[in-house]
Amino acid sequence: MRMYDIIMKKRNGGELTEEEIRFFITGYTRGEIPDYQVSALMMAIYFRKMTEAETLALTMAMAESGDRLDLSGIQGIKVDKHSTGGVGDKTSLALAPMVAACGIPVAKMSGRGLGHTGGTIDKLESFSGFTTALTREKFIENVNRIGIAIMGQTADLAPADKKLYALRDVTATVDNLSLIASSIMSKKLAAGADAIVLDVKTGNGAFMKEEADARALAEEMVKIGKNAGRRTIAVISDMDQPLGYAVGNALEVKEAIDTLKGEGPEDFVELCLTLGSRMLLAGGKAEDSGEARRMLEEVIADGRALEKLAEFVEAQGGSRESVYHPELLPGAAITRPVTAPVSGYLNHIVCEEVGICSLMLGGGRETKESGIDLSVGLVLCKKAGDYVMEGETLAVIHANEEERAEAVSKRYLAACRITDTPPEKKPFIKGVIE
Ligand code: URA
Asked: DSSP string of 11-66?
């Protein structure tokens, strides 16, 4: 079998066999097939797409490309959560301590930023000293002791996805249904949870811009999960504007902390309660969604969720001080307001552009090897539907270089559309697929 023939077959619109998919996944994982051939194949898949059978074969080949986590040493039903990625999506930072405080063991594997979207691990590294490089023993010990541990994708867990993810990030081949479904589900299957709750984003800031595509992605992932014997539920949520107000690593951590103090933005709180209640139901901790929501609200109100975050951060080497004093988190040198040029309704914010603004400030990676600046980003002051007066602040840019702040200020303004009439109100949660 030759990689060249596989690329050609897909380029010409053919359907790859399971054997061909296993051949390129195994070869790439072992370093026998170079990045440039896999990049070409990814681009061919991007344009030609994959059938359901190909997507399932790709998922299983990636899930089996390395070791699998054995979570049997953790008591209780393990429920994992994963988002397809968005702008300002700091959900795991608040949700993991919330559900852990309700008694669901959280043994989670998270990723880094991808394309214009951020990643949980990058955000968590805002806590000085925090590490996700845990041994398996430590990971399991932490979950049993405090109810929560998050680790990075180790080199031996779905290593094929780890390499492909980084390659897709820099070759404009992220937003393809089959590549996203197989990437997420291969990791989730290898990570060993009993049940999986997926947050599938749709809208301009998501990889799936159209709701129909997001629904198809959700259905595909739920099907893969069921075929693999895991209870899988997908929530479809809006990503037509950033989630909450903060975009950027440390800024999002601060907003997650505010949320655990009961001071979170409405859309973000709603998402945490929706996903969290599904997790509690899947984990057998609540009888119905009303009871589950009440339990989640209670652990916020009495401070148990915030304390759980502090315990978790400390257990992974980070400073618990920063949870109670977020001003200790990395901060940028420059803050610059972007003001409204006219009065009117903020009709629309081009969400992907906001993610790109954060990347331009240094909050994301340009190449596989780039470092990132945890302190930079944007804090929105107005969201779509809000009325704004001429000269009022639309958002505040947090930057470390004047030129970047200037460029982002122009770009952000260009991403905002101000009109005389308010935009149509759309539901934030667009559906649940079980
Ligand atoms: N999240 C993932 O884990 N993989 C993707 O391809 C996209 C989002």
From this structure: HTTPPPPHHHHHHHHHHHHTT-S-HHHHHHHHHHHHHH---HHHHHHHHHHHHTSS
The two tokens of residue 393 are 């602040």
Token look-up 């470390």 returns 400
Binding site membership of 405 for ligand 1 (Cβ less than 6 Å): no
Please give the model's pTM, rounded to 2 decimal places.
0.90
* Residue among 52, 431, 434 at smallest CA distance from 212: 431
107 backbone dihedrals φ, ψ, rounded to 5°: -120, 90
The CB of 115 under 6 Å from ligand 1? The reply is no
State pLDDT tens for residues 292-317. Answer: 999 999 999 999 999 999 999 999 99
Encoded amino acid at 51, one letter? T
Amino acid present at 105: P
pLDDT digit string, tens, across residues 98-144: 999 999 999 998 877 777 777 899 999 999 999 998 888 999 999 99
CA atoms within 13 A on the CB side of 206: 24
